[in-house]
């Protein structure tokens, strides 16, 4: 290289190094789902300098509301639940309290042998003592009597508070086969989509696993609630959950947002972390927060933090899909949706009748439903193309509910990294991940893959990370 050229080269290197040093940020947030957005919001509130980098062109991650021609279609999460307060508290903090809507108080149903049975609302906590046995009509009397013996069985077969046991076998011992297959399985699959024989009791039902005394007390003492109690734990926002995403975005002051940029590399530098995208954009910061699914985080950390990457690759995520259909006509269906137990061997895991569950989700005179498909169904839906999938699922839907209709609009959304599976060992794995991450100052992981998959769980984790960064 001629000396003049070398001089130019050195200048360029020094110049870009200088630019790099100059751009030392407080934090880089990777991933623009609810976790990343909440971290960025918290950092903005405190005036920290940062950037949030999202691979897709839109923010929100799993929160994906399609608003078109009077339809408000949730293709990701559908509701915030009142039992976990963080999501609703965030809405209030962001001035969205007037936008919060409650679901209709009609019941949800469960299917057994093609018949629909209303689910008593007290059953959602999976405590049979809180509902009248006669209201669990889809379970035989024998099965219900067996489930009624649960308090005694819990005493006879206690699970030590720190033991990690699978949900299925434990409930079979406590409440019997029938109750487990037709009640516990569909209720849990509607949230986690997974296989109850492998899901961890501690990780998915901590109210049952770790607060044993409280649980027993509720089994023994709680008075059954009347069935069809007119209270619903489900809330959303008038314009869909995307409104929360937009409002968070509006509040970012000191945090820049970059979308359409997949992060491809993370390296350590003397003073912190360097994050690089495919297009060779790069930022430097003291902290980096990975709010992307664990497998994706593993790929980024392979060279920099191989021990963390090794642990993260062990995470299991199950594909899920949402298929939504709209058709004209007045059709007053029974309730807000239904669950399909795995034992029914069908494509559908759950169905939400959006236009009946929420106000103004579809134009007047239209029906809007969404169907939830998960790995808990034995059907090979992930291998099908969208058109065949939508046709097959619609066939099953009309067969079940008897709608004499043809869908005029169809939306198909696949989530390949849909639902993290909290199988036995999950919490030990999370502790190991957190321990390994702690060895890299300034590195943080958070989100649905770790300590809770619901929106409120993600918001709580995001706030904890933000506090650690502030410390
Ligand atoms: C179908 C479905 C229904 C659900 N229903 C409910 C419900 O009703 N109520 C509820 O509370 N919860 C529900 N959940 C769970 C909840 O929606 C999710 O757990 C939560 O939204 C996940 O948020 P997150 O921030 O952890 O991750 P995500 O939303 O997955 O966000 C991660 C982001 O990281 C981005 N990313 C990935 N790799 C990179 C990269 N290399 N560089 C940059 N960005 C990257 C992704 O594009 C994505 O935007 C549902 C989930 C699904 C799938």
Structural commentary:
The protein is about 35% helix and about 20% strand. The longest helix is centred in the N-terminal third of the chain and has 20 residues. The chain has about 475 residues and is of the alpha/beta class. Helix 6 packs antiparallel against helix 7 and helix 13 runs antiparallel to helix 16. The termini are far apart. The protein folds into three domains: about 180 residues, FAD/NAD(P)-binding domain, CATH 3.50.50; about 150 residues, Alpha-Beta Complex (Polyamine Oxidase, Chain A, domain 2), CATH 3.90.660.20; about 100 residues, protoporphyrinogen ix oxidase, domain 3 (Orthogonal Bundle), CATH 1.10.3110. The strands form four sheets. Strands 1, 2, 10, 11, 12, 13 and 19 form a seven-stranded mixed sheet that branches. A seven-stranded mixed sheet has the order 8-7-15-16-17-14-18. It binds flavin-adenine dinucleotide.
Which SSEs are present, and which pair or pack?
Blueprint: H1 3-22, E1 24-30, H2 34-45, E2 50-53, E3 65-68, E4 71-74, E5 80-81, H3 86-93, E6 100-102, E7 108-112, E8 115-118, H4 141-148, H5 150-156, H6 167-175, H7 177-192, H8 201-204, H9 206-209, H10 212-221, E9 234-237, H11 242-250, E10 255-258, E11 263-269, E12 272-277, E13 282-290, H12 294-301, H13 306-312, E14 317-328, E15 337-339, E16 350-352, H14 354-357, E17 366-373, H15 386-401, E18 409-420, H16 426-438, E19 443-445, H17 455-470
Parallel strand pairs: 1-2, 1-13, 2-10, 7-15, 13-19
Antiparallel strand pairs: 3-4, 5-9, 6-9, 7-8, 11-12, 12-13, 14-17, 14-18, 15-16, 16-17
The protein binds flavin-adenine dinucleotide.
The site of flavin-adenine dinucleotide (FAD) has 35 residues, from helix 2, strand 14, strand 18 and helix 17.
């Amino acid at each position: 290289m001629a000396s003049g050229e070398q001089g130019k080269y050195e200048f360029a290197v020094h110049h870009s190094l200088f630019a790099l040093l100059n751009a030392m940020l407080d934090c880089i947030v990777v991933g623009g789902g609810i976790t990343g957005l909440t971290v960025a919001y918290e950092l903005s509130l405190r005036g920290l300098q940062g950037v949030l980098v999202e691979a897709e062109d839109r923010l929100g991650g799993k929160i994906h509301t399609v608003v078109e021609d009077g339809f408000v279609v949730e293709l990701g999460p559908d509701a915030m639940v009142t039992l976990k307060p963080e999501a609703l508290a965030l809405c209030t903090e962001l001035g969205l309290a007037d936008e919060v809507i409650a679901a209709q108080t009609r019941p949800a149903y469960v299917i057994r042998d093609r018949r629909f049975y209303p689910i008593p609302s007290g059953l959602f906590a999976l405590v049979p003592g809180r509902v009248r046995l006669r209201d669990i009509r889809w379970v035989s009397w024998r099965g219900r009597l067996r489930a009624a013996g649960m308090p005694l069985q819990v005493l006879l077969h206690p699970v030590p508070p720190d033991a990690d046991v699978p949900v299925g076998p434990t409930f079979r011992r406590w409440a019997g086969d029938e109750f487990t297959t037709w009640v516990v399985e569909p209720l849990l699959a509607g949230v986690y989509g997974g296989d109850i024989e492998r899901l961890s009791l501690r990780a998915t039902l901590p109210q049952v696993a770790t607060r044993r005394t409280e649980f027993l007390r509720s089994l023994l003492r709680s008075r059954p609630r009347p069935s069809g109690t007119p209270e619903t734990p489900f809330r959303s926002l008038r314009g869909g959950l995307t409104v929360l995403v937009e409002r968070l975005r509006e509040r970012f002051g000191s945090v820049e947002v970059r979308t359409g940029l997949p992060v491809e590399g993370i390296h350590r530098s003397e003073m912190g972390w360097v994050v690089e995208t495919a297009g060779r954009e790069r930022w430097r910061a003291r902290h980096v927060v990975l709010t992307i699914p664990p497998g994706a985080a593993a790929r980024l950390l392979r060279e920099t933090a191989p021990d963390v990457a090794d642990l993260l690759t062990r995470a299991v995520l199950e594909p899920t899909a949402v298929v939504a259909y709209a058709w004209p006509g007045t059709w007053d269906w029974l309730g807000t949706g239904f669950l399909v137990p795995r034992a029914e061997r069908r494509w559908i895991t759950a169905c939400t009748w959006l236009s009946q569950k929420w106000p103004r989700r579809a134009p007047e005179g239209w029906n809007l439903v969404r169907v939830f498909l998960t790995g808990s169904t034995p059907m090979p839906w992930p291998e099908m193309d969208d058109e065949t999938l939508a046709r097959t699922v619609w066939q099953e839907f009309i067969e079940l509910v008897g709608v004499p209709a043809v869908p005029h609009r169809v939306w198909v959304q696949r989530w390949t990294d849909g639902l993290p599976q909290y199988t036995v060992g999950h919490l030990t794995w999370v502790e190991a991940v957190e321990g390994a991450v702690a060895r890299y100052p300034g590195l943080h992981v958070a989100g649905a893959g770790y300590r809770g998959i619901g929106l409120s769980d993600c918001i709580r984790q995001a706030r904890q990370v933000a506090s650690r960064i502030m410390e």
